[in-house]
Amino acid sequence: MILRRAMGMALVGTMLSLPAQAQEDTRRVASTALCGDQLLLTLLPPARIAALSAQAVDPGLSDAAARAQGLPVLPADAEGFLWAGADIVVGSDRGDSQTLSLLRRLGVTVVRMPPTNSFADAMEQLRSVSTVLGAAEVGQALASDNEQQLARLLAERPTDPPLAAYYRPDGGSSGQGTFMNEALTLGGYRNLAAEVGQSGWGRLDLETLVLHPPTALITAYFDRPGWSLRHKFSHHPLFRRLAASRPTIALPGSLVACSGWPLIKGIAFLAAARPPAGDHHD
Amino acid sequence: MMSIPLLEVHTRPLLARDRRGGGERMLLEALRLSVAAGEVVGLLGPNGAGKSTLLRQIAGQQGAARVLVNGQELAGLSTTARARQLAYLPQSSELHWPVAVAEVVALGRVPHRSGRGLTSADRQAIEQAMTATSVSDLARRPITSLSGGEKARVLLARALAVEAPVLLADEPIAHLDPGHQLQVLTLLRRLAGQGMAVLVVLHDLGLAARWCDRVVVLHHGALVADGPPAHCLDDGLLARVYGIAATRGLRDGAPYLVPWEAVRP
Amino acid sequence: MTERRLSLLLLLALLALTGWALTLGTAPLTPSMMVAGLLPDLFPHDDPRLAMVMQEIRLPRVLLGLVVGAALGLAGAALQGLLRNPLAEPSIIGTSACASLGAVLAFYYGLAADFSLALPLAGISGAALGTLLLLALAGPAASTLTLILTGVALSSMAGALTSLALNLSPSPYAVTEIVMWMMGSLKDRSMDDVLLASPFVLAGCLLLLRAGRGLDALTLGEEAAASLGIALPRLRVQVIAGAALAVGAAVATAGSVGFVGLIIPHLLRPLVGHRPSAVLLPSALGGAALLTAADIAVRLIPARSELMLGVVTAIIGTPFFCTLILKARRQA
């Protein structure tokens, strides 16, 4: 008797947790950070969005800023999400682990979106997260479309890619094992930071830049004043001279702020702006 | 006059590692010392002779001296029971917080207290100690605001509040002006008169000669003299131990001595 | 003012602050909704979120603030008594930094995820090691200068090792997480955190509260204290173990929140006549009140994202620190 009742409850539980195909999914979703915002704004109808992070409406960082207008923006705390009626919360792995584990305790479905370091991983994450959000079909379509776009871009990739140095305003770059390195490679460049053996998000110093003059400089977030304490780097006379004498590609930050969607737009932008390879003389 | 000694001390040799030489240096040789009830004994000797070391040994803070009070071995007692037998006034009168004078004196009751509050016996002991040292008027003043003389009296009151039969005082009159020095020594005499055994480290030979029943002289860690001041502090000892000569005289039949000049030992 | 009356006043202030803190949060709740959320049996309400918000989000946060604040306030007062220096404070003498290091290592090696006690235990070990090192380096009755220099040395060492762990960390995001955590916060802690930290903090506080008589005797210096029957080695172990338990567990759950143990005893000491034992209990209550107040400020001050608790206490604490330095300089 008890067993049958338990089985019955388990069955009901399974049915509840699976979004019924015929019935419209009305579960509301909140995101704690920028990259989750991008997914929500692309995959879900506005009615299902319970809350976005403050960065969602910043056009310099958020590709979907226009769509975020008018939607609820909340600080990343458990109480706010709970009160906003979020059934699912997409977390970022950036300082919100306390909030996420508390929400999970309170019965909210929590999806963590740790940054991915390869395009393939990013697509896998996109598919799995969209399934949890009950938007498997849209997510599947978006991922396939991304993959097709990438395949087209790769087909046009030159045999002798130009050498590029990528810079954030603080002098920080991105070496091996970063998604930015992946974006540069897929976009048809050789990444200077990775070629000199750097890994991670460390600085690419001016000396390296002088010793290995790149064909192009790629900058992101240089349009954001006060973005970094070391903004001075981009004003260094040597850097400015190097920048003046070769193509400088200003990459919109909103296209490369996240390791997943919409990074393909950043890769396409890089591919479109790609100069021919060749030794550069100062 | 010599009755059963109230305080009896047998020390073992105390060696210290010599940092420069690498060998060992004698801090204090094995010695025997006793103080009777009603006696003020002056512990004398030049700097580094081992006076404070001896006092610390008796107080149980260094080495393993055999100490008896009223014929009872202190080694078997708990730290608090031991503290009730010996009141010790260390040389460095550190005072770290601006606590009220009454609170400082009340610390003398720590070895007697089990609970948090003060008993009537505690209060009485505190009051008596403060009256004896005439610091009752200062009761509410922060200890850090007192003059040197007042502070010395308060610290003495703290030691008296222990109500121990033995008082060990390490240079209680250093840094005091002559008026206050005499006040403190008068007080020590009075305490001895009430039956305490007082062992006090002094540097001033003149005051020691005048106020102590007996003096014990240490030199290089060894006991070199023990007896009445007039007898012990002769020219030979002063020259040998201190490298000085003294001028002497009599006032109202009592001998006095004033260190006069340095001499070659 | 007597110790008891001061404690009573602080307790009243603490109750008021606790009540205020419970009213703060992102959800716009009316007072009756808050009461219904806290006491659903007495005031039934049909919205299940009310009980969740009040009992599982706001209440743990407030409780953890009390526990952590009491630990820091009391540890400060007791360490000051032991070292006889008003500047001895867990964050200034490096105890907090060492506790952080312990906790960061537990994070770094993933111990915290596998074994929930790992974090407080690592914090406590770090704090104990730091305090022992301090005592070994600075000596039992350190001067202000020695104490601060030793604290700087210990904090730098712990900070450098923490940075090393961060540098070696595979993910830049883990770095953000740990850096944010180190600035201290009570945000979104659960009842589990409260239950994890409380036993250690309680044990530590009991050890510290029982050290009062010995700390009083130390007012006269070590020799006089020993002559009054105080067993100094035992007293030292008691205070260090107590402070390590309390501070270690507090730092491990709330991150490093500095200066609470400096501000509170400094403010309360004159009110109870500077007696070290009389400062202990009021400091625990005052520390809890200060941390609750700081956590209220964190949520009231408008900012893009919630201010970090450690930042607020440091901003309040630094002027006190400077005042104490000036005082020490005048006395020197």
From TrEMBL, chain A:
Domain Fe/B12 periplasmic-binding residue range list: 87-219
Signal peptide: 1-22
InterPro entries membership: ABC_Transporter_SBP, ABC_transptr_periplasmic_BD
GO biological process: cellular response to iron ion
Keyword Signal applies: yes
Pfam family name, one: Peripla_BP_2
UniProt superkingdom: Bacteria
Protein name: Iron complex transport system substrate-binding protein
Organism: Insolitispirillum peregrinum
TrEMBL record, chain B:
Domain of life of the organism encoding this protein: Bacteria
Ranges of residues in domain ABC transporter: 9-245
Keyword Disulfide bond among record annotations: no
Listed SMART domains: AAA
GO molecular function terms listed in the Swiss-Prot or TrEMBL record: ATP binding; ATP hydrolysis activity
Transmembrane segment boundaries: none
Alphabetically ordered keywords of this record: ATP-binding, Nucleotide-binding, Translocase, Transport
This protein's record includes keyword Transport: yes
CDD domains the record matches: ABC_Iron-Siderophores_B12_Hemin (cd03214)
Function recorded in the entry: Part of the ABC transporter complex HmuTUV involved in hemin import. Responsible for energy coupling to the transport system.
Protein family (similarity comment): Belongs to the ABC transporter superfamily.
PANTHER family to which the protein is assigned, alphabetical: HEMIN IMPORT ATP-BINDING PROTEIN HMUV
Listed name of the protein: Iron complex transport system ATP-binding protein
Organism: Insolitispirillum peregrinum
From TrEMBL, chain C:
Domain of life assignment: Bacteria
Keyword Transport: yes
GO molecular function, one term: transmembrane transporter activity
Keywords (A to Z) from UniProt: Cell membrane, Membrane, Transmembrane, Transmembrane helix, Transport
GO terms under biological process: siderophore-iron import into cell
Major site of localization recorded for this protein: membrane
Protein name: Iron complex transport system permease protein
